[in-house]
Structure formats: structure tokens, C-alpha cells
Design brief:
Length: 228
């Protein structure tokens, strides 16, 4: 059992945003989250996101990412598994593989854990429970060079910064065989440049994902909204 899970058992749950006790997210904080029902096109694939980016969503993402807050990660994973229903409705696979967008090696080292592996693992578990399909995590993408922190860069600079940054982890691509639905997964999509790089790396190995899934989307940067 992870230390965080143990802590959750010892200390009763409190609201992830305002710390009101007894709930994971209190009704008034939950009301500040903005559900995303639109989808977006990124390099010919559909991106499904659970939330629009706002202050409340940003708090949840940062708690999961930087503080390894498992309650926040579980909450986001639940929302993402719900959003996955649109993917499953379109593809009806019996088996899916979730491929996380990797963080930089420096970020993983600083945090001491691979944040997207944890989040995607929780999403996979929820999908198995909710949809009675096989769903596993596949750590297929790996960074091959240093990238600057994307958050302070313009859209164009982000693209240049991330272009060619990922490659397929050797020996794993054969697991992404015929009939298995590949879902590229990230916590936050802003300009779509990191998702695009993930797609490019997969396509270099002739792997075409069914869809892209994220916890949160800063949709104002993505012009290619495709409706409800
Ligand atoms: Zn609250």
C-alpha cells in the first residue's frame, strides 16, 4: 500500500479544494469545475477531455502532479473514465491500452514518481470496473532529449520545444497489436503540441491511436473544436 493511500485511511477525507471535512470534493467546490462536453481535433484524432481549464481544475491537476495527492488523482481518474465512454461508444473494443504522455526525466527525478503513470493506472482500473473491458497501461513513449518547461512558452515556441522529443520504448510496440484500442492520455492539453508529438512518435512506429484523452483542456488555444 502506498503511503498516500495509508494516509487516506488514517485521516478522513476532506475537500480537495477547501478542506471541508468528510467529502472528496464539497458541492460548492464541485460547482466551480467546468465539465467539457465538446471534443477537439488534434492531428486528425479526436481529443476528449473531462474538464475545461480553470482555477479549480488547475488546483486538482497540480495536487495530483506536484503533491502526489492520490485523492486528487483518483477524482481526476474517475472523471476521465467517465469521459472514456465516448471513445468506447465509437470503437467498442474488448481491449484498450492507455499510453501516457511522459514527463521530462528531470521532472520525474525531482518529483520522485512518474505522475502520468500513476494517473493513467488509476484511469485503467476505473475503465476495467466500469466497462467490463480489458484496459492496461502501456508505458510506450519515452523522452529522448531535454525539453524546456512548456508552461511559459508561446504556442509556436511550445511546438519547436517539443518537436521530436519522444520515441517508442523498444520492445513494447508489439503489444499495441491489431484489435487493441490505443488511447493517448495526458493530464492537461493546452495548445495540443505535446499530444501532437505523442501522436507523431506513435505513428513513426505505425501505431494509430483510437483517440486522445485528457483530464483537462485549455480549449481557448485549440481552434479545432468539433462540437458536442
Ligand atoms: Zn470544497
Amino acid at each position: 500500500m502506498a503511503l498516500k493511500d495509508l494516509r487516506d485511511l488514517i485521516y478522513p477525507a476532506s475537500c480537495l479544494l477547501c478542506r471541508t471535512s468528510g467529502v472528496t470534493l464539497c458541492p460548492s467546490c464541485e460547482a466551480t469545475l467546468s465539465s467539457c462536453t465538446e471534443s477537439y481535433r488534434v492531428q486528425g484524432r479526436t481529443l476528449y477531455s473531462s474538464l475545461h481549464y480553470n482555477e479549480a481544475a488547475s488546483h486538482l491537476i497540480l495536487a495530483a502532479k506536484e503533491d502526489n495527492d492520490r485523492a486528487a488523482a483518483r477524482y481526476l481518474a474517475e472523471l476521465m473514465a467517465m469521459r472514456f465512454s465516448r471513445v468506447h461508444r465509437n470503437f467498442h473494443r474488448s481491449s484498450y491500452l492507455l499510453v501516457p504522455i511522459p514527463s521530462s526525466r528531470a521532472a520525474d527525478k525531482r518529483r520522485g514518481y512518474e505522475h502520468m503513470m500513476i494517473l493513467a493506472g488509476l484511469v485503467a482500473k476505473r475503465i476495467v470496473t466500469e466497462y467490463e473491458v480489458d484496459c492496461q497501461l502501456l508505458n510506450l513513449l519515452t523522452p529522448i532529449r531535454k525539453v524546456a518547461d512548456q508552461s511559459q512558452l508561446t504556442a509556436r515556441a511550445r511546438q519547436v520545444n517539443i518537436d521530436g522529443a519522444f520515441q517508442l520504448r523498444k520492445g513494447l510496440e508489439r503489444r499495441a497489436g491489431k484489435g487493441v484500442g490505443i488511447i493517448l492520455i495526458d493530464d492537461l492539453v493546452t495548445t495540443g503540441s505535446t499530444m501532437s508529438e505523442g501522436l507523431r512518435a506513435l505513428r513513426m512506429g505505425s501505431i494509430e491511436p483510437d483517440a486522445l484523452l485528457s483530464a483537462c483542456v485549455a480549449g481557448r488555444f485549440l481552434v479545432n473544436k468539433i462540437g458536442l
